[in-house]
Write a structure and sequence with these properties.
The structure is a single chain. The chain has 157 residues and is α+β, with helices and mostly antiparallel strands. The protein is built from 4 helices and 6 strands. The chain has one domain: Aminopeptidase, CATH 3.40.630.30. The chain has a 6-stranded mixed β-sheet, sandwiched between helices. Strand 3, helix 3 and strand 4 form a beta-alpha-beta unit. The structure holds coenzyme A. Coenzyme A binds next to strand 3, helix 3 and helix 4.
């Protein structure tokens, strides 16, 4: 698990622009992973589960409570971007949630984040806005956009 944490923190620190203050510290990540229902899904250079020792190109951090799940973080290391890894990770998050009979997925992102395109294409729709929510970076504050997606209990294929 320490190796996985190291790999996730390497992606975290490379992926998030410090201007926006969105990256979590190792301590925040460790504390969150202790909470029930929290999981971190890793991606190799094809977006799939990495074999032991293989490069970790991205990760998705989720937390479920009853039949709802929040996508807390999704990140791909900059040098691996634009190859569909983020999209594949998101597909795996949705498929995994569906297999556990999760009814709704949520996420929150900074207004203006280009990832909005990725989320909209996956089926997320905006359900709220929190003015000035992101205040930690040097460029803000920025509004947070809350998005949700219902997961149909049907075979996705
Ligand atoms: C968002 C992120 C995970 C996408 O990873 P990725 O592997 O490059 O994504 P993909 O290659 O699967 O791209 C999927 C689609 O989303 C679009 N997209 C993703 N991130 C984008 C961005 N920042 N700006 C514009 N478009 C973006 C891509 O253009 C692509 O669409 P297309 O194929 O129609 O062109 C990555 O950019 C990242 O780590 N960003 C920093 C962390 C972050 O902001 N995460 C989201 C909030 S937690």
């Amino acid at each position: 698990m320490t190796d996985d944490l190291d790999a996730v923190m390497a992606v975290m620190n490379a992926a998030f622009d410090p201007t926006f203050g969105e990256a979590w510290t190792r301590r925040q990540l460790e504390d969150t992973l202790l909470l029930p229902g929290t999981a971190c899904m890793l991606a190799d250079s094809a977006g799939e589960e990495p074999a032991p020792g293989e490069t970790v190109a991205g990760f998705a951090l989720t937390r479920c409570v009853l039949d709802e799940e929040e996508l807390l973080l999704l990140a791909v290391e900059p040098r691996w971007r634009g190859r569909g890894i983020g999209r594949r990770l998101l597909q795996r998050v949705v498929a995994d949630a569906r297999s556990r009979e999760i009814a709704r997925l949520f996420l929150e992102m900074r207004d203006g984040n280009g990832a909005a395109r990725l989320y909209a294409a996956a089926g997320f729709a905006q359900v709220g806005r929190r003015p000035g929510y992101y205040r930690r970076g040097s460029g803000g504050p920025f509004d947070a956009i809350t998005c949700a997606m219902s997961i149909q209990m049907v075979d996705p294929s």
